[in-house]
Protein 1
Amino acid sequence: MIRRIRYESMRLVEGPLLLKLQSFLIKRQKKKPDKYPELGPPLKTEERLRKMISMHYLTGRYADGAVPVAWATSGAPVEVLRPLNYHVVYPENHAALCGARHMAMPLLELAESHGYSPDICGYARCDFGTAFGGRTPAGRVPRPDILVACTNICQTVFFWYRELAKHFKVPLVLIDTPFLYGEPLPHQLSYIEAQLRTLADIASDVARRPYDLESLIRSTILGMEGSLLWKQCLEVNKAKPAPWSAFDQFVHMAVIVALRGTEECNSYYRELLDELKDRAKRGIGGIANERHRLLWDNLPVWFKLRSLSGRLASHGFHLMASTYTNAWGETADLLNETDPWRGMAKAYSHIYLNRDLPNKLRVMSNLVKFYECDGVILHSDRSCKPYSLGQISLSEKVSQACGARTMLLEADHIDSRAWAEGPVDTRLQAFMESFK
Amino acid sequence: MGRIEYIQKQQKEHSRKVVGALPVHYPKEIFTALDVVPVEIWGPPGPKAGEGAGLLQTYICPIVRNALSFIRSGKADIVDGLLFPHTCDSMQGLATLVPDWLNYKKPVFRFQHPRGSHRPEALNYLRDEISLLVHSLEKAFGLSMNPARLNEALRLHKEAEGLIRLLFSRRLHFKGPDRELYSLIRQGEFLRVEDHIPLLKKAIAEIADRPVHKAIPVMITGYVPEPMAIFDSLNAAGAIVVADDYAGIGRRIPRPTDNRLDDEGGIDAVIRRYLSLPPCSTKTMNPEVRIPYLLSLIKESGAQGVVIHEVKFCEPELFEIASIRNAFEAVGVPVLFLETELEAELSSRTITMIEAFLEVLRKKTKEGAAS
């Protein structure tokens, strides 16, 4: 009961007050000269984004013991958990936050000191470091009551969450989505659908709350609407100049990952969509002088977001679309409120990373054409094998298919030890010069 | 007889189809029943890093990189098709890269076994996947599954597995070095089970009544016993492998306690066999089963130390190293962790680590005897 009061107090009273205080302090801070004046003006919705995500993590500090807590992979069917009032923690989202705030390395090293190899996924290591009590920008991440992993983004989550289950000794529910070589077969969809129903049963037992199909349908509709709004936000970038960069998108996607299936998420993207449309109408770009438009493939390099963005922008290169951010909107229309289980089975198996290379090429080529990109940067991400395997061929094929110039950038989405400033700089320079 | 000669003989003299099987779990009985010969491709060391190797980043596991090089170098052209089981992200990626973009024209089969639970939905799915594999093989090679032949195949594989288990349980009585034992067992990676059984029986006939080795017994776990030189170094340092938990060896032999295998035939028995396999990093979801299994394995075998031998960048395996190491250290069993590429020989550093580990084991044995 005390935990519940504390949680509600943070949600309704302390949290909003703390955020007001934070806004006040931010406004009072002396403005430093802009290191990257070539970047466009910041989005106004950023302030709301900061508050929403801060609130998510602030309430999370007191969630365990107050409400059921789930740790879930970013591709997990969160619609199933929402009706049961779960506070959902996304370790990937949290790890990205740690990376962007330059706080990931001590967590990775803590995991490694517990025997985890530096060759496994950096997100997983960051998460293990957090579980072992490492310092996080979130202050504290609540202990899970249940773990939900869906293999539609990688098989790694299966190995990763198994370790979390050993550590926390809580139920692990795996949604095993067969990899799609072409289109899904009926027995594959039935398998996923049955697992989703199992998830609902187990999550209901853990939450000690009966399952309500009406609520599932409601959260499915909200999830579908949120994903479609996100897609519309991305598609505004067809305008020239594109009103926001892929770097902005990497930050603003936090909401579709962490709050998908809620009205709060959808209301936020409505506001963002209005702002983006307005910027497009007024010719305000994500960078000051857009001469070339680039597509990004793979996860971002979280600890280099701003510098990489500024570096490209200073030469008129606008990285304004990405396969990663696109993935959160591309399957929205497969969700189906009249048959929510089957709809989710379809939507969650058709994820970009769960499909074969010809599909990746198709998606990438479509994005290049749709956004009229003249170049593609493929981030060869040491931490993410499923995204990176095939990129060497993909780079050549997308170039042949669309005439876009391509480059492979060797890095890691979170482990800064894999970042080699000199070689990256040289390759970027050569890539940009090839456009002259 | 070497692999190539054997494959050619199967194709020319017996008109059998041969399928190159990538690691690790697949229903071998189905192939036996259809008279198709699976020849396993464990990223063999040897093929030059050429066009194939350049298509994958260096942080992709060497099993997948070497397998791709092997296929691209034309050395796998002799087989009539390829099978990609659902093992890890890299294998999954290879299963689209090779047929979709590398102009591989022969039939490709995929076996996506369920991950994790043994719930009814997983078993139904497994049944459908096995049926799909049967149907794909039948269609590609113009074959037809005979239920009686499937039951016979199940019986043969069960016999072979029993013989391998016996060889490990009587390891100290089998005269040959570890390399000889593993070479014999690994012939099952390309021999038909009917041809493998006589070789295993011959080895068992040579088992002495009394132990013939005085080496320190150790257990080994990992993905694949490559390079095989690891056994030479272990034996030279005074150790002998008495328990095996390699994904490619021990984890593909069902546990003997499961009597249900005797009661069923057909696809149900194939499923039961799958369920009876020891826990494996690539397919077992339940976090509670692998460590107790490994602890029981070491206890039953009398091994005094554990060698964890992993292939670099093997994610399924690397995730579990910490908990395996902690579990053994908690019960006072020394652990040696070795990480190798698929090189032909061991590095001198690895050899030194093995020697140092054996020193530790010897010291511990002496201390144990003294106390």
Protein 2
Amino acid sequence: MDWANDSLNKLEATREGRLSSNPPDIGEDEAQKLLYQYHPDYIGRQRNVRLGPNAGNGKVPYELADLLESDSQLPVGFEPSVNIETDVLILGGGGAGASAALALEGAGLKVHLATKLRLGDSNTVMAEGGIQASLGINDSSRRHFSDAYVGGHGDNDPDLLRVLCENSETTIRWLGQLGCILDSNEDGTFQLRPGGGTSLPRVLACKDYTGLEIMRVLKDAVLLSSTQTLQNHAAIELLDDGDGQVTGAVLWNRDSGDLVSVSARAIIIATGGSGQLRFQDFPTSNHIGAVGDGLVLAYRQGCKLVNSDSYQYHPSGTTYPEALAGQLITESIRSIGAQVVNAEGRRFVHEMTFRDVLAAAIIREVSEKRGVQTPTHRAGVWLDTPLVDLQNGEGFLKQKFPGIFHRFKRYKIDPAKQPILIYPTLHYQNGGIKIDRDGRTDVKGLWAAGEVTGGIHGTNRLMGNSLLDITVFGRRAAMSVQENLPQRRPVTLTQLKKFRECFKMISGKQSLLSPQLFPVASGMKIEFTKNNSAEHVSQAFEATSQSKFEPPDPFTT
Amino acid sequence: MESIKIKVAGELIHARAGETVIHSLWNAGKAELIKTGCVGGVCGACTITVRSSDGKMKGTDLACMCPVEDGMEVFPCPVDSALSLAPEPNPTEEKLRKAFPKIDKCTKCGSCTSACPMSIPVMDSVLRMRSGQLDKVADDFTTCIHCGLCRFVCEDGVQPHMMGMWIRRSIGSSLEKDMGKKLDQDLGQAELEWKYLLEGTPVDRMNHARRFRKSGEIEL
């Protein structure tokens, strides 16, 4: 990193002085000002959606608005004929979907889990920092609630947040029963770390691979369960009975190209987030499938979205080397002493403040030319990681955070000796489908859980609350499904047809089709193999070369 | 950025120095060539083998973590998941042997260790399994992404990652969990606190939450 020597020298010159310095504490007003001036959510890159349940009621990022207003991938003229009949169809193979599947085990129901990738390929598996649980001696679910509520700017649904916080201990027990191993102390108690905006240490972790540990175990348990997993099956539309109840889904089998119609008595949508939409060209920490599929599918069925104007830009995304751009450096590193320092070697914000404030502060430093330019035309500020060992003893950083060493080793960067350049990365979809305490959406037959939902985290999520969210609400949705399972009803495309009627009315349409399934940048093709006489005339359709289609053969494996 | 050429599954790809194999495929409109998942090096979907420009095999890697090098050749190497085995409480060497009889077939060739994209000392750990050091094995496999490459390269059908998972889950589910001694047993007090936090206008709620998170006390 010779190109950064000037700035590195300044950073090293101030290091000893900074070691004992207090973090700069900006007041609440200053923090608000920072958000309004610099946070991507607040700078006017959003618009109203012109159709559907949120029409004229609150803005969402341009890119998401475009998708909500886009035509379906499903060829006009397609009529579903049932290929798979099941009781519960779970859409999504991350932590929420897997938790739901496990909570349905033993209920005597036929369960299918469809994921467009493989089971476990998700944002869950990439979560590093940990999972919150109020196990500390002076901690409580109320304290947890207060932190998350203040962090979420009070935009949280208090009922949902209470459910989240009251279920942390049982969730940790459940994960333990499944065989998750979280870091513990000599005396057998769990290690609790602070997280940004937690008033007490409350974050449990498995080094900096907490999501990997949890997802690996959930996946193994699902594979051992009676759930039938449909991998490489992307949901491209929900089916309804023509009378306001969701009754199934159309899946696209990516291997064969077939469209597969599923009849289900209940659907749990757990399709996760949308970081790969890369708003305002931000890099992202998200997996290849995170493009908001679930939001689009549920929206067409009449589900309202809440807080969908709000996204989390994680303050510490990697900025250099280029190959790692956007990838996460866990917040925990800051919680044990790594400072955030600008090009001049100065701290400019409390490292453990709320994520949105810290992200805004970093963006300010860079836009006011106090950032460091990389040779690949990115910019960032320093995360002074060598401070961790200076405070905790040599080898501490590597022992606690093997993941970051592993990733940087290839580029001959040793985080114990060299700081890391960071810049906010699009990380988490704070808002989403509106649900109640039991994961029910506004629409009968449809439940939702995890990152695809909105309300729990308000407009800024705290570290460690998403792994908790997916395990708590994935299971709750599954319990609710068991208690409220509707009768099987016919599968039709009534809602989609209604949507298409509205779609005809709006002007200046995008040529996109949604759900998008994969990032635009990936250039991934969506092609259905079979051909029928139904002709799809829209230009958008031609643009994605889905010109061949006929009703799918009965699904056989 | 410097432009370089690589080959992926026999197809010529123009890439930019500094990017990963996955991103070079995205830019070339060839994303389908390699199955991709998290793009963050932890899901194990995008397993590949690599041959460098001098014709030497460089071994296995993850395409999302592998930076492009001029003249390199990349071969997709997807690994299907193996059959899982249910964990057992209080695992022992005997139980492990019974569950995974092939454990003793290991000929110590070291292929698994060199194949592991997470730098886990896989072969050493298999030897530790054979001598019953299961706690150490559980530790070894903390960072296992379950990509299956260790199994893929094993000539003797040993399944190190499956054994690692089985051992971790078996140990994990047998651990006595100490949830700590909580002061949280006074349900009456808890209800008072919830009332304090949930009632009133949004402004009240925010003020109460701000106060409570600092002091842990409610204002009566």
